[in-house]
Write a structure and sequence with these properties.
By secondary structure, this protein is mainly α. The chain has one domain. 69% of the residues lie in helices and 0% in strands. It is built from five helices and no strands. The termini are close together.
Length: 121
């Protein structure tokens, strides 16, 4: 199983959780789910880019130009840098943090990342 296949159920679940939160006017909760999707999906070019695209849409919905421009740059980075492994560990992916900053990973996400690592071997 490759990394994209291994990460898919975890990222898709968080994307659904984000969509549900946004539909219920819980934008902060929805963005938190996108951040978790980013932490889990950033080793797959497809899912890394997909999460940044969802964050871009969030920025447009919120009228947040900083998020919009930040996500445009991050989408370019995700497309061009993911396969090279140029990823800051645990980075949550929003424009509110440096795209180069490593961050702590929650115990829940660490456990999932461990599963993904073993499944993608």
């Amino acid at each position: 199983m490759n990394i994209r296949q291994a990460v898919k159920p975890y990222v898709v679940e968080r994307l659904h959780m984000a969509k549900s939160a946004f539909l219920n006017d819980q934008s902060k909760e929805g963005f938190r789910h996108l951040e978790n999707a980013h932490v889990l999906g950033q080793h797959s070019t497809y899912f890394h880019t997909r999460v940044h695209f969802e964050m871009l849409k969030y920025g447009f919905r919120q009228g947040d130009t900083n998020e919009v421009f930040g996500q445009i740059l991050r989408i370019i980075g995700a497309i061009t840098k993911t396969s090279l492994g140029l990823l800051p560990r645990g980075n949550t992916g929003g424009a509110n943090v440096s795209a180069f900053k490593s961050m702590p990973i929650s115990p829940e996400n660490l456990a999932i990342l461990d599963k993904i690592k073993h499944e993608s071997k």
